[in-house]
Amino acid sequence: MHIDIVTLFPDMFVGPFQESIIHKAQEIGALSIAVHDLRVFGIGRHRQVDDVPYGGAAGMLLRPEPIVAAVESILDRPVFRGAEEPPVDVDALPPIILLTPQGRPLTQRVVSELADHPRLVLICGRYEGIDERVRQYLATDEISIGDYVLSGGELAAMVVVDAVARTLPGVLGYERGAEEDSFASGLLEGPQYTRPPQFRGRAVPDVLLSGHHARIARWRRKESLRRTLQRRPDLLETVELNDEDRALIEEILREGKHKGTH
Ligand code: 6GU
Fold first, then answer.
1. Which pLDDT belongs to residue 185?
2. Does the pTM of the predicted model rise above 0.90?
3. What domains are there in the chain, each with its CATH number?
4. Is the N end or the C end of the chain the one with fewer CB atoms within 10 Å?
């Protein structure tokens, strides 16, 4: 997987991409990342990238030309769907993704979908906004990482890179795959424990020390269902439950421990 990122703040990515999973993904050759400075494609001697909005409004907007120039340089071909230009075969392009609070919400399903492409182009919005023509005729997708406002798409792009990187083959290692994560199953993960077995009078649940693998698996599934019921009941609407799951939910409801703890 190769990811190109277009940003006015390339230095923001230096630290985060040199650590942990994203670092490992690059080290093993599962991922390569190129961060491109939008300023390089700015207009004139001042390398201008933004301007005042037409019609009068507060703030500055990113102009279309530098962003289109950046992406056409990265992909080495015309990509802007101009009125007078030959049509662009969007299916022959990598996704060109604008990071914006108006985009479709990032979910694990969207992450998997992105991870299926060999290449992605991420465009980080900044300032008060971006010329609509970028959205309409350059971007092929728009993504938001949640219902709150960030100062720019950079942190959102890092979130996308991290979430995609950890799903790539070989990145997490064999001990624990991304398949086991919260959300991968559609459910929240249940409680987990490590040593010591007793800490200030608080014990690890006996079943986890019992060595009964079937009982442990059943307990884990039940606690995962309990936590999902308690904290994110909306997730249970879309997840596929089997008869055993439904029986476990019955048990949880009878126990009456499905409320609170949030
Ligand atoms: Cl992708 N960008 C900005 N500026 N704010 C956001 C966001 C993106 N996702 C959530 N908030």
1. 85
2. yes
3. 2-165 (3.40.1280.10), 182-260 (1.10.1270.20)
4. C
